[in-house]
Amino acid sequence: MRLFAATIATETNTFSPLPSGINAFMETGFIRPGEYPKDAPLGYDAPLWAARQRAAVEGLTIIEGSCFFAEPAGVTNRRDYEFMRDEILGQLEAALPIDGVLLGLHGAMVAFDYDDVEGDIIERVRALVGPKCVIGVELDPHCHLTVKRVTYADVIVLYKEYPHTDIVECGEHLVDIVLKAIRGQVKPVMSLFDCQQLDWYPTALPPMRDFVDWVKALEREEGVLSISIGHGFPLADVPEMGGRVLVVMDKDKAKGDALATKIGKEFTSMRGKHWKHHISLDDGIASALEFNEGRVVIADPADNAGGGAPSDNTTILRRLMELQVEDAAVGPIWDPIAVRLCFDAGLGAEFPLRFGGKTGPCSGTPIDATATVIGLKRDCLQNFSGTQGPLGDCAAVRAGGVEVVLNTTRTQGLGLEVFRNVGVDPLAKKILVVKSALHFMAEYGPIADKAIFIRSDGLNNRPISEYPYTRVNRPIWPLDTETSPRLLV
Asked: Which domains does the chain have, with CATH numbers?
């Protein structure tokens, strides 16, 4: 059995001032065949990783295509997207004939002139491999579950958890279904229900925790191959954006339609009940300072690189310094120039440093301080749910009573390595400020006695209803009060 696997992935915030080009992919993930790491998956390559684990045992031949992924930002340059896409398609064509294709995508990538990047890729793959080849796709739940993708793929599986702690598990699930389909043990058919709603759905908290557990129980019923809840990515102004339910059945399309409709109606009944605990800057910091029962982790979701923000906003840090807060650490702040200056100055140096606040108005103003370099390390990594991601070169500086981690590869704070790489012990701090929306909770939640979510003046600081959408299909809640959820496929 011959399987081809490849990845192209990023999450596009169409409101972000940061255009995505080939350099963004080369900085984060630009891996050619034969260059994949052997020790841990990178994230979006989970289908390839899972297929590798089964290859030796089951006699599979895995043809590895390229793996491209970039930190979320704005719309991708058309030329660069087509270059990466065509490289993967060329590798696939050279590998024919193929029994199955495994694509590790994101699902919310947008390029100039391509609202539905993943639909474009899947359609072109189908044209190459023909109708009998089984195409399996793994997507992030913050994706756009378009009709085109469901039309041209055989199986689509989304992670169920947010934070995304089940990326590898869902990649293994996808591979299992694809192999069974190739062997004729199952015949996947998909049903897609449009809930016509926009929101954020953290799955560790009610009501989503109970909802996801219920969906997992339904997935164990006879004939059900997979159930996925597409949260949608509200920071993208594209037509088919929003919450959708995808059911993959073995042969029984009618049962899949009924199940997708049942789950979709339950999902729509939960509108407005999801977690919204973001508080103001001063209230958040005051709450942290007043808490005397342990460690406080403060999140800065508005400046989350994982949502396409620059991750160089200085507002929370500046306020901590103004209040002369001690025993606090902040990171990661994206500032390649400041990192270079710290390396040039050397460990232990004390010198005037301007850092942060560089990208635009949503970044705040730069910090000007006499900084002491307390940590330096090249090529840093951070862990997240069994995967590893790059932080780039990192520098830690002390400015006032606050220790700040600066990095060169724009990314959100996921693992404790953000601080530990450069000698800052997160367990020794009373207050940790992390540039992240929710994913940080997988690693920081266990060490936090209290978590506070501050709404800073970063890029992603508005309620969904206040974004200037012009292209999203209407009606859709909460932009519209009257909607008509329905089965699409």
From this structure: 2-269 (3.40.50.2300), 281-454 (no CATH)
Per-residue model confidence (pLDDT) at position 74: 97
Q: In 3-state terms, what secondary structure has residue 433?
A: strand
- CA 337/CA 49 separation, integer angstroms: 35
Task: Write out the H or E segment, with its range, that includes residue 248.
Answer: strand 244-250
Provide the H-helix boundaries in 153-252. Answer: 167-182, 208-219
**Distance in angstroms (rounded) separating the CA atoms of residues 43 and 7:** 10
196: left (phi over 0), alpha (psi -120 to 50) or beta: left
Q: Are 199 and 243 in contact (CB under 8 A)?
A: yes
Q: How far apart are CA 91 and CA 274, in angstroms?
A: 43
Q: Decide if 473 contacts 198 (C-beta within 8 A).
A: no
| pLDDT tens-digit map of 107-129 | 999 999 999 999 999 999 999 99
Question: Which secondary structure element, helix H or strand E, spans residue 264, and what is its range?
Answer: helix 253-269
Closest of 409, 358, 403, 334 to residue 379, by C-alpha: 409
Q: Tens digits of per-residue pLDDT, 443-473? A: 999 999 999 999 999 999 999 999 999 999 9
Q: Residue 79 burial by CB count (10 A; 0-12/13-18/19+): exposed, middle or buried? A: exposed
Query: Which residue carries 């919310």 as its tokens?
Result: 108
β-bridge pairing 367-384 and 350-355 = antiparallel
Q: What percent of the chain has pLDDT over 70?
A: 100
Residue 429, amino acid: K
The SS3 call for residue 204 is: coil
Pick from 174, 284, 261: nearest CA to 225: 174
pLDDT above 70: residue 183: yes
DSSP string of 446-489, one letter each residue: GG-SEEEEE--SSTT-S-GGGS--SSS-SS-BTT-S----EE--
Q: Other CB atoms closer than 10 Å to residue 317's CB: what's the count?
A: 27
Angle at 277 between CA 273 and CA 278, to 5 degrees: 130
Q: Are residues 95 and 64 in contact, defined by beta-carbon separation less than 8 angstroms?
A: no
Q: Please answer whether residues 146 and 239 qualify as being in contact, where contact means their C-beta atoms are separated by less than 8 angstroms.
A: no
pTM to 2 decimal places = 0.94
Cβ atoms of residues 88 and 8 within 8 Å: yes
